[in-house]
TrEMBL record:
<comment type="similarity">
    <text>Belongs to the thioredoxin family. DsbA subfamily.</text>
</comment>
<dbReference type="InterPro" id="IPR012336">
    <property type="entry name" value="Thioredoxin-like_fold"/>
</dbReference>
<keyword id="KW-1015">Disulfide bond</keyword>
<feature type="transmembrane region" description="Helical">
    <location>
        <begin position="14"/>
        <end position="36"/>
    </location>
</feature>
<keyword id="KW-1133">Transmembrane helix</keyword>
<keyword id="KW-0472">Membrane</keyword>
<feature type="domain" description="Thioredoxin-like fold">
    <location>
        <begin position="68"/>
        <end position="207"/>
    </location>
</feature>
<dbReference type="Pfam" id="PF13462">
    <property type="entry name" value="Thioredoxin_4"/>
</dbReference>
<keyword id="KW-0812">Transmembrane</keyword>
<keyword id="KW-0676">Redox-active center</keyword>
<dbReference type="InterPro" id="IPR036249">
    <property type="entry name" value="Thioredoxin-like_sf"/>
</dbReference>
<keyword id="KW-0560">Oxidoreductase</keyword>
<keyword id="KW-0732">Signal</keyword>
<protein>
    <submittedName>
        <fullName>DsbA family protein</fullName>
    </submittedName>
</protein>
<dbReference type="GO" id="GO:0016491">
    <property type="term" value="F:oxidoreductase activity"/>
</dbReference>
């Protein structure tokens, strides 16, 4: 009898052990599936257009190389904005100052020169979103829809370290903001401006006027960077735009 009770106890321990292993395995598998799903949550999504853009009809959007200028001719002030569509701080900058910048542009006080830089090109999964989105934004500028495209990408910004948007999604956004020229999709898919963007980025990184001190002995170029008349503007100051436009 004693031997039988021992065997029964061992069996119960064995069953409980197997059950525990199954539960742990299920949790691990569930966690992996959730992680993959979260990483790829942009897959199949439509990038929503209409990020609240309301430019005046006489505001000009013009591409010059890999820089896009937005504003009315004769604006007395101008700024250069260096940003990466994947950069979360750039996204915060846009959220905080978009309305003020747009108002200054509509009032004819400000021109904005946008520089799309692929600083975080290896920080999407798979890599490449920063460059793809920059190239697509220049293609949108060719079609006169840069601001609409730019604002939609920031309003629907993917997370750093996760999947960005693929070229098909970028092409779809172009159509949704009103681009009908087939050259747009051709430019996006071919990466037409990739080489120029990378070459400009190398110059930007090596421009001493764009070097910032990040503290702890670290300095260099970072995004977002705002400059006016060749001097870096401290955009963390809430009144920076008023000071620029005077």
């Amino acid at each position: 009898m004693a031997q039988a009770r021992g065997a029964s106890t061992d069996t119960r321990k064995w069953v409980i052990g197997i059950a525990a292993v199954v539960v742990v395995a299920a949790l691990v598998i569930g966690g992996v599936i959730w992680t993959i799903s979260d990483k790829n949550k942009t897959e199949g999504q439509t990038i929503t257009p209409g990020g609240g853009t309301s430019l005046a009809t006489d505001v000009v959007q013009k591409r010059d190389g890999v820089v896009v200028t937005v504003g009315k001719p004769g604006a007395k002030a101008s700024i250069d904005v260096y940003a990466d569509f994947l950069c979360p701080i750039c996204g915060q900058f846009e959220k905080t100052y978009k309305t003020q910048i747009e108002q200054a542009v509509n009032d004819g006080k400000l021109q904005v020169r946008y520089h799309m830089v692929p600083l975080l090109n290896d920080r999407s999964d798979p890599p490449g979103y920063s460059l793809d989105s920059a190239n697509a934004a220049l293609a949108a500028a060719d079609a006169g829809k840069f601001v609409q495209f730019h604002d939609a990408l920031f309003a629907n910004q993917p997370e750093e370290g996760k999947r960005g948007y693929d070229k098909a999604q970028l092409v779809k956004l172009g159509g949704d903001v009103g681009i009908t020229d087939p050259k747009f999709s051709q430019t996006v898919n071919a990466g037409t401006y990739d080489q120029q963007i990378n070459a400009a980025f190398q110059q930007i990184e090596n421009d001493p006027k764009l070097v910032q001190d990040f503290g702890n002995g670290q300095s260099g170029f970072g995004t977002p960077t705002v400059a006016s008349n060749g001097t870096i503007v401290s955009w963390q100051d809430p009144s920076w735009l008023a000071k620029v436009t005077g």
